[in-house]
Amino acid sequence: MMDELELLKKDWQKKDVAHPKLSYNDIYSMLWKKSSSIVKWIFVISILEFALPHLLYLLPSTRNNLNIFGSTGFDNYFIGFSVFYYLVVFYFIYQFYSRYKEITVLDNAKNLMSKIIKTRTTVKNYIIFSLAMILVTVLLFMLGIYLNNDFSNLISEMGDNVKKMSPEKLKHTLIIAIGILGVVMTVIMGTVYFLLYGLLLRKLNRNYQELKKLEI
Amino acid sequence: MSKDLEHAFVTELENNQNIVHKVCTLYTNDREAHNDLFQEITIQLWKAYPKFRGDAKFSTWMYRVALNTAITLYRKSKKRVQTIDYESVIFKIQADEYDATEEQQLKLMYKAVKQLNDIDKALVFLYLEDKDYTEIAETLGISEVNARVKMNRIKGKLRTILNP
Where residue B159 sits, what CATH number does that domain have? Predict the structure, then answer.
């Protein structure tokens, strides 16, 4: 075997790859092409993840829904909750950015992989936090509706069938519906996210495990 | 960035492109993927080039960036057509230089190396490029002892592939 590998080595160093040599212009034009590295993908996806929940808030329907707290005296809690939420989000963005900046292709393979994984872990924690917040918001909604006695304006916007229901029954139906919707949404978002990253980082994780195995 | 920098970089890469081609050959199975990986390595080299500025040989520095891109950063392109026997056309087999058995042996060896996993390929690549274990260890971020142990295991693996 040793001999064969030595033979291969001699051959390897002697030969050029049977690939057409690229010209100066070929290489020059490549400098301006877009990178499709996983680091870039992680960056793009993460920015979307940080931005998406806030874009959602800009939709009029979401904002109107949040107004339900106006008449329940939940205002202060809601502001407190928002302050806490944004503090945590900014902490995640800061941590993500500083870890992202540390990634350099000049590192050795193992460090490079571990830094990418760390950056990704920040985003993963952010996602878990966001999903938890969605559930808390849903819970607050349910509580808000439960404590809200003024349903007349809500009912007037709904169809005839709904009007026939007793306010009590309507309230419970609404609470249960929001609860189910919230949980289903959270589960779907979580699944999509973990599948997406799982696929994106499958190769990296495999290679990182391979390198780590060596250190044991 | 200045025109001078662009010119210096492209000239260096043009002269050393064989290293990148060899990495692409090891890590891809068809010409399209080869070109795709070559392009990604070029982009990564270019992005890192301002930090290079001649503290090492250009080629030495290329090994690390090229391997990092192949092992870690590169995402395989979606359009994946499995081509049948790319291995046989990868390297110019110069028939007159070798006797038939040696050539056959080499072909089998190349084929066996292509079957290794990404990390093993990186070790074999650096070994074939005549890098010492210190450099192999530094490039991959493992200890020198582990690099040696790993290389011995790879030799064993190749043996199993060649003589099942």
Answer: 1.10.10
User: Which residue from A19, A7, A20 is spatially nearest to B91, judged by alpha carbons?
Assistant: A19
Question: Does the residue B98 lie in any domain?
Answer: no
Cα separation, B164 vs B160, in Å, equals 5
What is the count of structural domains for chain B?
A: 2
CA-CA distance, B162 to B24, in Å (whole number)? Answer: 23
Residue that has been written with the tokens 């582990």 in this structure: B146
SS3 category, A159: coil
Q: How many residues does chain A have?
A: 216
Q: Residue A39 burial by CB count (10 A; 0-12/13-18/19+): exposed, middle or buried? A: buried
**A-proximal residues of B, 13-42, CB under 8 Å:** 13-14, 17-18, 21-22, 24-25, 31, 34, 38-40, 42
Chain B CB contacts of A103 under 8 Å are none
Q: Which residue has the tokens 């290079």?
A: B52
Domain around B119: 115-164
Instruction: Report if residue B103 sits inside a domain.
Output: no
A62-66, A73-77, B61-65, B82-86: which has the minimum mean pLDDT?
A: B82-86
**Spatial distance between the Cα atoms of A172 and A155, rounded to a whole number of angstroms:** 14
Choose one of B83, B105, B139: the last residue of a domain. Answer: B83
Tell me: do B59 and B122 sit in the same domain: no
- Kindly report, residue by residue over B2-29, the tens digit of the pLDDT: 788 889 899 989 988 999 999 998 999 8
Which CATH number characterizes residue B2's domain? 1.10.1740.10
Domain identity same for B3 and B76 = yes
Chain B residues with CB-CB distance to A108 below 8 A? 64, 138-141
Query: What's the whole-model pTM score?
Result: 0.79
Report the complex ipTM: 0.81
B5 and B78 share a domain? yes
pLDDT at A44 over 90: no
Domain membership flag for residue B122:
yes
Q: Is A23 left (phi over 0), alpha (psi -120 to 50) or beta?
A: beta
Beta-carbon-side half-sphere exposure of residue A19 (alpha carbons within 13 Å): 25
Residue B95: pLDDT band with limits 50, 70, 90: very low
Please check whether residue B145 touches A, CB under 8 A.
Answer: no
